[in-house]
Design brief:
- This protein is globular.
- The chain is an alpha/beta fold.
- Helix 1 crosses helix 7 and helix 5 packs across helix 6.
- The protein has one domain: Pyruvate-ferredoxin oxidoreductase, PFOR, domain III (Pyruvate-ferredoxin Oxidoreductase, domain 3).
- The longest helix has 14 residues.
- The protein is about 40% helix and about 25% strand.
Length: about 190
């Protein structure tokens, strides 16, 4: 059975490293893995989406509406934006950070309130946490991606040592300790 994970965020948040790490881990676990990056205006703070599909045999990298087992979101509004892609019994692992999109910055709209509650009311299981604070505790605001991967790891039956190994293979050496710390903070939150 194929499992589908969507990683959604805003450009520059490290979602591509997160998908690379996940793909590496799942390949090493013996799964057929397809990763597809769908870029928006990533360099301008626009929406970035990555699909990670894995199973015995995966034929397409694309996830359709209603198929995502998990949505990993770097930002609350992005989680809400892609809610229709979640399966009825799906889970959202999200950072509670709010990054204002252009319509909010220009004053044309206001940032929606109570997004976690609204997503739960639509049936989503939401695991929301302040990943930015944990990333800062680890040593860098840029480590939000590893905090999220740490949290996601709780929903996999894969030993933490294998996640750590994937981090060692995917993260540059000079950022390794910081990223491992961020991962563990997310996992143990």
């Amino acid at each position: 059975m194929t499992k589908n994970i969507m990683i959604v965020g805003v450009g520059g948040q490290g979602s591509l490293l997160a998908s690379k790490l996940l793909g590496y881990l799942l390949l090493n676990e013996g799964y057929d893995v397809k990763v597809s990056e769908v870029h928006g205006m990533s360099q301008r703070g626009g929406s970035v989406v990555t699909y990670v599909r894995f199973g015995e045999k995966v034929y397409s990298p694309i996830i359709d509406k209603g198929e995502a087992d998990v949505i990993v979101s770097f930002e609350l509004l992005e989680a809400a934006r892609y809610l229709e892609y979640l399966r009825p019994d799906g889970k959202i692992v999200t950072n509670t950070q709010q990054i204002d999109p252009m319509p909010v910055i220009t004053g044309a709209m206001s940032y929606p309130e109570d997004l976690v509650k609204k997503m739960q009311e639509k049936g989503a299981q939401v695991d929301a946490m302040d990943c930015l604070s944990l990333a800062n505790e680890a040593g860098s605001a840029k480590a939000v991606n590893l905090v999220l991967m740490g949290r996601l790891s709780k929903y996999f039956d894969i030993p933490v040592e294998k996640w750590q190994n994937a981090i060692e293979k995917c993260v540059p050496a000079k950022f390794l300790e910081l990223n491992k710390k961020a991962f563990l903070l997310g996992r143990e939150y």
